[in-house]
Amino acid sequence: KAMVIMLLYIVMVIMAFVFGITISNTIRKEAGVIGTLRASGYTRQELVLHYMTLPVLVTLVGALIGNILGYTVFKDICAAMYYGSYSLPTYVTVWNAEAFLLTTVVPVIIMLVVNYVVLRHKLKLSPLKFLRRDLSSGRRQKRAVHLSSRIKIFSRFRLRVIFQNMSNYIVLFLGIIFANLLLMFGLLLPSALSHYQGEIQGNMLAKYQYMLQVPVSAVSGNKLDSLISLLEFYMDSETDNEDAEKFSAYSLNTLPGKYKSEEVLFYGIEPNSKYVKIDFDNEESSDEDGSAVSADTEEINEKTDNNSINTGKNTTGVYISSAYADKFLIKTGDTITLKEKYEKDEYSFRVEGIYDYTAALCVFMPRSELNDIFDLGDNYYSGYFSDTELTDIKNQYIGSVVDLDALTKISRQLDVSMGSMMGLINGFAIMIYMVLIYLLSKIIIEKNAQSISMVKILGYTNGEISRLYIMSTSTVVVICLLLSLPIETAVMNILFREMMLSSISGWITLWIDPMIYVQMFVAGIITYGIVALLEFRKIKKVPMDEALKNVE
User: Rounded distance, CA 387 to CA 35, Å?
Assistant: First the structure.
C-alpha cells in the first residue's frame, strides 16, 4: 500500500504538470481569440470558466472509466498477483472510500486548482497584448544571443532554436525527470531486493542462530517441579558441537514517534567471539575524542545512577547493526534510547561503533554486561551461534532457528507479490514518458510553426527542416536524460526511505543497479525515436501560408 500510494503521488505531480503546460499552450494558441473576446466585453472570470470546462469534463470522464476498469479488469490482475503468493480464501470486492478519494477526488481537485491558478495568472494580461500575441509579462525585449560566424549555419540555426525555446526545454527537462522517476520506481525494487538477499548471505552472523525456549513447566507449577524442569532444560540444551558459541538476547522497542515503534534485538556476545568480530575492550580508545567521551560518559552514568530507580536508564557503550544505523540515521557517538515493550522503563546507550550487519535492527554488547543490565543472571544465555547444525539439543527446547531462508523471507515475499506489478508500473511509466515528450515536443513545433513555414518558403525540404528542429530537440532530450539521472537518484533516496520507514519492520537498503541507468537511458532514447517520427509528420503538415498569418 505504501508503495502504490508513493507511486500515486508521483503520478499526481505529473498530472498537475501536464495540466499546467496544456492550458498554457491552449492560451498561447488562442491568444488572438482571447484578446478579441476581452476587447468585446467578456470578463476574465467568464473566460476562466470557459477554458476550465473541457479539461474538467475530460478528467471526470477519465476518473469514471478508471473506476470501472479498477473494479473489473485490473481487479482481477491484482487478485491474481496475491493468489500467486498467498493462500487466501475467495475474496469479495468491496467499494473502497480511501481509494476513491486518492484516485478520483484528489486528481479532480488538482485539475480544478492547477487550471484555475494558471488561467488566472495568464489572463491578467491586457487585451492588446493578447491581440499582439505578446504573452510575456515583462516589458524588456529579449535580445538574441550572439553566435560566432565560424559555427556552421545548421549548427548555428539549431543553437538559435534551443535558445529561443529555452523555457520550453526547461519544461521538457522537468517532464523527463517526472517520467524517468516513475520508470526508476518500477525498475528499482526487483534489483534492490535481489541485492539485499545477496548482501545478507555475505554478512550473516552465523549460518545458524538457535534461540532456546524455556519449557512452561520450568516457570509454572510447584517449586520442586519447576526446579527439576529447569535443571533438565539446562542439561539438555547444552551442546558438544565445537562450532557452537553461546549468546544472550533481549529485546527492547524504539520510542514511538512519527513511525511505529519497532523491536530491536540485543545480542550479548562472548569475549573474542569468532562470529561477531567486535573488540569491546578498545571501545574508548577507538573514539576520536577519547578523553572527552570518557568524561561525558562518566557524567551521564553518574546522573543515570541517581535516577535509575525511576527511569531504568543506562549508558553502556554498544555497537549497532548497519541496518539500524541506516534506518534511523544514527552515527558513532550518538545516544540511542529504547524502552520495554509493555512497560515505561527506558534505557539509553552510547553508540561506540556500527557493525556491518544488514539483516536486522540489532545492538551488540558483551554478554556479561547485557545479563547485568537486564538482571538475567551471570550464567544466562539465550541461544547459540553455529556454522553447522546442532543435533544434540532436543527440539522441544529450540524456540526458533534463524538461517538464510528466514532472513530473506521478507524480501522474497515482496519480490513474489510485487514483481508482477513492477511490469505494469514500467509499462505505465513508458506510456507517460511518451505522452509527456510528445506533448512538449509538439508545443515546441507549434510555437515555431511560423518559422518552419518561412523556411519552407525559402526552399528547405521537410528532411532539412527536421534536421534543424527535431535534431535540436533530440540533442536537448539526450542532455536532459543524462542530467536527470543524478537528480532522480537523490529524489529516489528520499522516496524509498520514506516508503520503507512507513511500510516494513526491519530495513532494506536502497541499492541501484548501474544497469538501471542504462535501461532508463535506452528506454528514453527509443521512446523519443517514436516521438520524433510523430514530430516529423507534424512538420510536414505545417502549411506555407502560416508565415503570412499573425504578422506583427
Answer: 81
Where in 255-382 does DSSP place strands (E)? 263-269, 317-321, 335-339, 346-355, 362-366
C-alpha cell at 251: 529485546
The pLDDT tens digits along the chain (552 residues) read 777 777 787 777 777 777 777 788 788 888 888 888 888 888 888 888 888 888 888 888 988 998 899 888 888 877 877 776 667 788 888 888 888 988 888 888 888 888 888 888 888 888 888 887 777 655 555 566 666 677 777 777 778 778 877 877 888 888 888 878 878 877 887 778 778 777 777 778 888 888 887 655 445 555 665 666 666 766 767 788 888 898 988 999 998 877 778 889 999 999 888 898 888 776 544 444 433 333 333 433 443 443 333 344 446 789 999 989 998 889 998 999 999 888 888 899 999 999 998 888 999 999 999 989 988 888 888 888 988 888 888 777 787 887 777 777 766 776 666 666 777 777 777 787 778 777 777 777 777 777 788 878 878 788 878 877 788 888 888 898 899 999 989 988 888 888 778 777 778 788 888 898 998 888 888 888 888 888 888 788 777 766 566 554
Cell of 5: 500510494
Look-up of cell digits 578523553: 291
Q: Is the Cβ–Cβ distance between 184 and 484 less than 8 Å? A: no
How are the residues of the chain apportioned to helix, strand and coil, as percentages rounded to the nearest 5? 60, 10, 30
Per the document, the length of the chain is 552
Place of cell 528499482: 188
What count of other Cβ atoms lies within 10 Å of the Cβ of residue 318? 25
Report the DSSP pairing between strands 335-339 and 383-386. Answer: unpaired
